[in-house]
Description:
Elements: E1 15-19, H1 31-40, E2 44-46, E3 48-51, E4 57-59, E5 82-84, E6 87-89, H2 97-100, H3 125-136, E7 144-149, H4 154-166, E8 176-180, H5 183-193, E9 197-200, H6 212-217, E10 223-225, H7 241-247, E11 251-257, H8 269-279, E12 283-286, H9 289-301
Parallel strand pairs: 1-2, 1-12, 2-7, 3-7, 7-8, 8-9, 9-10, 10-11, 11-12
Antiparallel strand pairs: 3-4, 5-6
Amino acid sequence: MTGDFWKTLDGEPPRIIAHRGASGARPEHTLEAFALALAQGADMLEPDLVASRDGVLFARHDLGLSLSTDVATHPRFAARAREIGGVRDWWIGDFEAHEIGILRAVQPMPDRGDRYDGQFGIASFAELLDLVARANRDREMPVVIEAEIKQPDAAVLAALTRELESRDLAGEHAPVWIECFDHEFLRRARERCGNPCIVLLEAEGDWRRGDPRLRELARWARGVAPRKDILRDAAGRDIRWVAAAHELGLEVHAWTFRDDRDFAPFVTPVDELDAAFALGADALFCDFPDTAIAARAAFVAR
Length: 302
């Protein structure tokens, strides 16, 4: 259902973004988590991207590897741990791509269980692009990758550009969008690659409705990605933040919706999803995309 029913910028149903894949059900950022999200019907996939020592982009949230991989169990890498900024870890920038290929993913959130720990490898960006390319052959509407850059530096931008251009995935109409909290980096990526950009808004930032900074972002960005509670008041009521962004021509991609945490003041996670649909959010970052897809269908059926 489209048109007057949905309050999204384009009048289309809100897109469900699989946040780090179906990360509520599988270790995040693995090909298996992304494949499950595709099977569940996610419209978009969101990987975070960091680079190995030899400049290969990998889907990882943290520069440190200990939280989401089994690096600590490999004796050959024991001496590789070192302290940066008071934190001791194994840092991805100290590993070559072939060494990262030895590692296996683990669930970084202990309450989600360890059933799949050690079963899946660490996905490179190239492998994810291959996975989505195969999936898009059979889809009328292509799945979009919305990639968050976690290392906003010149080397990562160069690696991203090479990867996109080598696959003819650079440009305004490519099914790869770029997001980052570093707005200057993101603008450089927009200028260099031409891909649509979604500006992540800091959780601590005072992004009020009508903020003049949003008008400036609207000059070059496709949309903004605020923390979900920015869009409503403490009781969950609409403060017209989404409507104001739409007036500037900006899509609103809200983060992060999870079945197992952080859905107050709503009673259930589905109540929270319904409220976001009603606000007109254009896309929702979800750890459990199947829940959001079912909620969207039920929202229409009422």
